[in-house]
Specification:
The structure is a homodimer of 216-residue chains.
Chain A lengths: L8 H19 L4 E2 L1 H8 L3 H10 L10 E2 H12 L5 E6 L3 H12 L4 E8 L8 E2 L2 E5 L3 H8 L3 E4 L3 H13 L4 E4 L12 E4 L2 H21 L1
Helix pairs in contact in A: 1-4, 2-3
Chain lengths: 216, 216
């Protein structure tokens, strides 16, 4: 790999946003895009966008803009979307099931191999076409199938324990939907999803509007 | 309201993170917290934290830190968590059901009044204790019950249409889980949830590790 330094986490977190936007442009057969147009459409500062894209040698040219397809495939490469990942889901409740279905429709790269459950009634059945196995067998399964990512959809009380099991089974990435922050040792990547964070932001915006109305 | 200027969106988006952290500290009976300790624990730059908290008149004192409870209640007030919101969920599938259950366990402030569905088999039943009504009746219901927030858990094809119906019914905030960006007129707050964004970040981290291993 040629890159001499890692790209900062803040930049990485903005890349999926660029990626979604470029995917949309491509679907609309747009070939080029300027940072100023991009800035308007995705509500980021144009100079911020240029700095971000420069980080990984963006292809922008003054007065000409970026090539949509080149930029998109470069971001795909950086995000690792040109690879594929083996995924297991722990917890076959509503959230687990929603994610299985979500990924059936999603493009590529993330293959849900198995759902793990402790509920004996679910073990041996299928959820949206994906088999359900008992949690007892997770370590064996992960080792045999080179699982990359474990998705935790259990109640919050079990989240840390499951994370420890996953790490023990050699999994390198955890996507945690349980409403509890999960801690792991260095070298393991975790994304803790805090759904309520965005709900709180929504609450903020609503309360601002109310204040504005009261003021009028 | 005394505030002379609105707080920037970037700061607002960090507040839920502070809020979660402070809630944790309070549960551990911690009374004071310094920006440097905070910085270590939540992986944000200490000067960034001080700047953020200054935006709304944080209570920090040199060498003494912030009062956990004061800071927490100030953030609650700013986020509007000291108010309560009437919420309806559109789409009673797995994601909708997961969110109903999620909010049953959540503290306060967001009251799920009703689930709306087009599936006749679900209409009239209850999901996790919450009634299911036909989508036909949503406008009448929202007007009668002063609904603040509509949560879209439908397939992406219907998301924009539902958003338009919600806005027509006087709803001021939309929490959108359909994998399609929903557009609304000014004055309506929308949070589009893109679950895959964080999965892509996870993919990035995993692919970086692989590169590092190959390099060794």
């Amino acid at each position: 790999m040629q890159e001499t330094e890692r790209i900062s986490e803040a930049v990485i977190r903005r890349l999926p946003r660029y990626y979604r936007y470029l995917t949309q442009l491509e679907a609309n057969n747009e070939e080029r895009i300027s940072s100023s147009k991009m800035s308007k459409d995705i509500a980021l500062n144009a100079s911020q966008i240029r700095r971000d894209l420069n980080c990984f040698g963006g292809f922008g040219q003054q007065g000409y803009g970026y090539s949509v397809s080149k930029l998109k495939s470069e971001i795909e490469r950086i995000l690792g979307l040109d690879r594929s990942y083996n995924v297991v889901i722990i917890g076959g409740g509503n959230m687990g099931q929603a994610l299985v279905k979500y990924h059936k429709n999603a493009k590529k790269g993330f293959n849900v191999l198995m759902i793990f459950e402790t509920d004996e009634k679910m073990v041996g059945t299928k959820v949206a076409g994906t088999e359900v196995m008992h949690l007892h067998d997770i370590t064996m399964f992960c080792e045999k199938n080179q699982v990359d990512i474990g998705v935790i959809c259990t109640p919050k009380e079990s989240a840390q324990e499951i994370a420890d099991v996953l790490v023990g089974a050699g999994i390198k990435g955890i996507w945690n939907f349980a409403p509890a922050t999960v801690l792991v040792r260095e070298g393991i990547a975790v994304e803790n999803i805090h759904l309520n964070d965005s709900l709180y932001v929504l609450g903020y915006k609503l309360s601002q509007d109310e204040d504005a109305e009261n003021f009028l």
